[in-house]
Amino acid sequence: MQGKLKRCLIIVFYSVLFSPTLALGSNELFFEFEQAKTFESKLELANTLLNNSTTTNKQKAEIYISLADLSFKKNDYTNAINYFKALERITDKKFLPDQHFRAIKMQGVIFYYQGHFQKAIFEYSRAMHIANQEFKKIEQANLLSNIGLSYFQMGNMELTLKHYLDAKELYQAVGSKQDQSDILLNIAGVYIRLSRYDRALIIYKEVLGVYQLLNDESGIAQVYNNMGVAYYETNKYDFALHYYQLALRFYISANNDNKLSTQYNNLATVNLILNNVSTAYEQAQLALDYAKKISNHSLELAALHTLAQIQFMQGDLAQAKVNNSRSTLLAKKYDNERLLIDGLAIKSLIQAGSGEYVDAIVSNKHFADEQKRLRSQAIVKGLALLQNEFKATQLNQEIEQLKQERQVQSLKMSQRNQSTVFVFLVLILLGTLGVAIYRRNSEKRAKQQLAEQVEQRTIELQNVAKELRKANEVKSQFLANISHEIRTPLTAILGQADDLMKGLYKPEQLQSELQVIHRQGEHLKSLINDVLDLSKIEANRLELNASRFDFVQLVTDIHNMFISQANSKGLKLILNNNISEHFYTQLDAIRIKQILINLYANALKFTAQGSITLVLDRTDHGIVCVVKDTGIGMNNEQLKLIFEYFKQADNSISRRFGGTGLGLSLSQQLATMMGGYISVKSEYKKGSQFSFYVPCTELPVESIELPHETTAFNKKSLSGKVLLAEDHDDNRRLISRYLRSLGLDVIVVENGEQAVEVCLKEYPDLVLLDIQMPVMDGIKALQLLKECAYQQPIFALTANVMSHEIDHYLALGFTDYLSKPIDKELFYNALAKYLKLDATKQSEIKNVDISDLVQSFKQSFTVERSKIARHAEQNDFDNLKKDAHRLLGAAKMFGVIDVSEAANDLEKGLQRKDVHQINVLTNKLLSVLLKYER
Q1: What residue ranges define each of the domains in the chain, with the CATH number in brackets?
Q2: Axis crossing angle, helix 778-787 with helix 803-812, rounded to the nearest 10
Q3: What does the angle CA 623 – CA 628 – CA 632 come to, to the nearest 5 degrees?
Q4: How far, in Å, CA of 279 to CA of 25, rounded?
Q5: How many C-beta neighbours within 10 Å does residue 238 have?
Q6: CA–CA separation, 662 vs 706, rounded Å?
Q7: What is the mean pLDDT of residues 530-534?
Q8: Which residues are 745's β-sheet partners?
Q9: Which terminal residue of the chain has fewer beta carbons within 10 Å of its beta carbon, N or C?
Q10: What is the distance of C-alpha 784 from the center of its chain?
Q11: Contact 496/513 with Cβ under 8 angstroms?
Q12: Each residue of 152-182: pLDDT tens digit?
């Protein structure tokens, strides 16, 4: 077998060395790339060229442009944006500046097509900065139009119109007739949102004539679509249907998935109103299919919203509820306030149709309130925008018109004979009097409008000031609460520690006093974790780690956890399990536990007598946990604040019961991240009921891998041969010592190339590959071993343990992974799955002495510091990154925390490529290393 694998490795080596593709020069390969007809052939040649050291950066840039454009045409937005990012990295303002500018701008375009409008605005703004510096007026106008279109999709009409008007001014100076018509088309869209349909239709008809002269079929289709929108909003549905169908014909011929999704959704909306329900359903389904095809969540949101309405009309209430819930979640995620409010109306109808009349009335009231608020905001903003745009222009036109009339009257008067002088003088006097009266009335109206604007602005400022005062009150309340919560355990910790230092306790009392300190410390840690979790959620950095577990067992454990506390308060604790003895599923068990503990703890905190009941039920799509208590309850005003940050029902709550007001807000955020929600019902002085719903599916028992029973100090030794590939000397010595303590034979190598060679020669029972190694890294070594049919388990040994990194390693073909620093229990359990047990020996993994290795590692800091300083001086960031990663992994292994933190900061700083920041972080790491040399 080993001889066969050796031959395989030799064949692979010589086939690569003498490949006819690699034998060609880069110029010949580049010519073949340009002539290639299919995307697949281009991609294959591109990979060869990009890995060829003789390929110039200019050629690489042209390769990235070609691949990006082809991916964009295929609606493969993920690869398209990756290619444009690669193009941005190898170009700058001096080298291929036009391609550099286009790479940034196109990232914005792709984000727009994906429905990520805020990201699109960010990329457009980066491109605008370059266009402003290079005085590219037409590009400035194009970017302003694109930014306005993104704000339009987000529903911010004020910023939309501002950018459109700025673009219009530039197009009038440097743009073509087509450009000027395009921006008018966009401005008309704003008028539709402001309910100025008559003005919008006038602009559309003017623009349509220009597009027809230019024979611009795409522009004509866009006008038809927008005219359909205008007629739809004015309840002329037959006209709307006609123009939507005209636009659809062009988009079908152009095969434009983005526009097809929009058009089919428009048609479905009109047909639903015209009671063509079956046709509307087919068109809404097509709109949803096209939106999913191009991964545009904004279009998917619109299609789901329409589909929910149609399914309600068809009587399919269950599916209508599902689609409306999905639509609402997307509307919240992408800040679509209009569809979010419309979703409330549909929700109330579905609830009424399902017999949930009380909930339906509540939802309908919520919808009416939001609709009134949105309409009021739209009227105020619309008036302000239109007045600002037209007031100065109208007044100037009136004054100019009056001047022209006056000049005409003067000329006529001079040309008349003496016999008509008196008549004309009378007429002029009358005209002047009329003008004076007219102007006086105009000034009066203008002053009145100005007074109304001032009054409106004053009200707005008062509202803003009121909101700021409320925000300041929230901050003050939170600071007071968190200060109280932190000082309480700190007082106990510091007091107990001071008494212990003074020797005020007898030896037999020490254990109980230390338990007090430990308990208060755990309380402090939970407070800090709540604040940090909320910060991570807000920064979109909190990751869910799904695992398979028994939901019923988890709930039972939490119930048992609170029994003693309930008994001490004289409360009855009840668990009603209405599903089954076991329910295995795959979720983030830690976050589920965090939510349920919070709900249980709140019920226990606010209940003085009576009972607390946890009801466990299942639905068609998941599980519902209901926590009921007989506590103090809440009124309607308090319920509105229950899930807001840093707020409890009122200030007296925190004084009487404690707490920061973070728990329920954090729990709601976590539930939303898992696709669920938390709802509450409460009656003042009678109790509360919190319902936690999470979507999940039940897994068959046989698919669950139950944990092996192992003890901490009495494990069976393992037998077999293990290969360890690790580039750091001290890490190699430490891990190999652990492996030998388990009874294993260990082969140690320094890089991936040696690992492949030894594996094909010795064929060990298990392989541990470090990911980042010199000569050949762990990923390339894995790929080469797989090509040579190596079948033994291969583990990724890495300090990169983020969930997306682990998923990436497993997708590449690694059997499993082990994280650094080594967790002895996890280390043993992972290896025990794939290696044989030796029942005759016992492992002493807990007693491995590594003090000599820690000392050796610290002694290596002198050499490491010299390498880092040299690479930093030469601006050799690649080697500097390797230095930081090598130190980070080893420092974690040996528990040298300050070194691992400094190395981690430098590694992250190198990814951002900020030279100044890299120098600061490098000096910080050098200072930490120097501390250990003294």
Answers
A1: 256-379 (1.25.40.10), 547-702 (3.30.565.10), 710-848 (3.40.50.2300), 853-931 (1.20.120.160)
A2: 20
A3: 145
A4: 59
A5: 9
A6: 35
A7: 55
A8: 721
A9: C
A10: 36
A11: yes
A12: 888 788 888 888 889 888 888 888 877 887 8
DSSP 667-683: HHHHHHHTT-EEEEEEE
- Strand 794-798 versus strand 816-819 pairing type: parallel
Using the structure block, give the residue that is written with the tokens 């045409």. 73
Residue type, 462: Q
Of residues 907, 918, 917, the one with CA closest to residue 875: 918
- Between CA 242 and CA 246 the distance in angstroms is 6
Transcribe 877-930 into DSSP letters. HHHHHHHHHHHHHHHHHHT-HHHHHHHHHHHHHHHHT-HHHHHHHHHHHHHHHH
Cβ contact 243:221 at 8 Å:
no
Distance between CA atoms of residues 765 and 755, nearest Å: 13
Q: How far apart are CA 538 and CA 704, in angstroms?
A: 34
Give 520 or 540, the one with higher predicted confidence. Answer: 520
Give every CB contact of residue 837 below 8 A, 6+ residues apart in sequence. Answer: 716, 717, 718, 719
Quote the CA–CA distance of 762 and 718 in Å, as a whole number. Answer: 19
What is the amino acid identity at position 620? D
> Does position 256 have pLDDT exceeding 80, yes or no?
yes
Give me 931's structure tokens: 């501390």
| Mean pLDDT for all residues in the chain | 78
Spatial distance between the Cα atoms of 893 and 734, rounded to a whole number of angstroms: 8
CA distance 521 to 740: 38
Q: Which residues of 665-689 are buried (b: 16+ CB within 10 A; e: fewer)?
A: bbbbbbbeebbbebebebeeeebbb
680 - beta bridge partners? 690
User: What's the mean pLDDT in 270-288?
Assistant: 88
Provide the pLDDT for residue 605: 85
| Statement: residue 821 has pLDDT above 60 | yes
Q: CA–CA separation, 52 vs 198, rounded Å?
A: 61
- What CA dihedral angle connects 396, 400, 406 and 408, to 10 degrees? -160
> Assign residue 658 a region: left if phi > 0, alpha if psi is -120 to 50, beta otherwise?
left
What are the residues facing 271 on neighbouring strands? Answer: none
Are β-strands 687-695 and 622-629 bridged in parallel, bridged antiparallel, or unpaired?
Answer: antiparallel
Would you call the peptide bond into 774 cis, given omega within 30 degrees of 0 as the criterion? no
Q: Cα-flanking dihedrals φ and ψ of residue 913, to 5°?
A: 60, 35
The one-letter code for the residue type at 468 is L
Token code pair at residue 798: 């890495």
* Residue 188 in this model has a pLDDT that exceeds 60: yes
Residue with the bigger pLDDT between 384 and 252: it is 252
**CA triplet 674, 119, 150: central angle to 5 degrees?**
110
Contact at 8 Å (CB) between 879 and 871? yes
What is the band of 749 on the pLDDT scale with cuts at 50, 70, 90? very high
Q: Which residue has the higher pLDDT, 205 or 626?
A: 626
Q: How high is the pLDDT of residue 668?
A: 84
Q: Given the structure tokens 């068609």, which residue do they identify?
A: 620
**CA 370 to CA 337: how far, in whole Å?**
9
Q: For residue range 36-83, what is the model confidence (pLDDT) as tens digits?
A: 878 888 888 888 888 888 888 888 888 889 888 988 888 888 888 998
Distance CA 383, CA 392 (A): 14
List the beta bridge partners of residue 842: 716
Query: Residues 37, 38, 41, 46: what is their CA dihedral angle, to the nearest 10 degrees?
Result: 80
Q: What percent of the chain has pLDDT over 90?
A: 12
Q: Is the whole model's pTM more than 0.85, yes or no?
A: no
Per residue in 190-205, pLDDT (tens digit) is 877 777 777 778 888 7
Closest CA to 178 of 227, 218, 225: 218
Please list the residues that pair with 263 across neighbouring strands.
Answer: none
218-224 contacts, C-beta under 8 A, 24 or more apart: 218/250, 218/254, 219/178, 219/181, 219/182, 219/185, 220/250, 221/246, 221/247, 221/250, 221/251, 221/254, 221/259, 222/185, 222/247, 223/185, 224/250
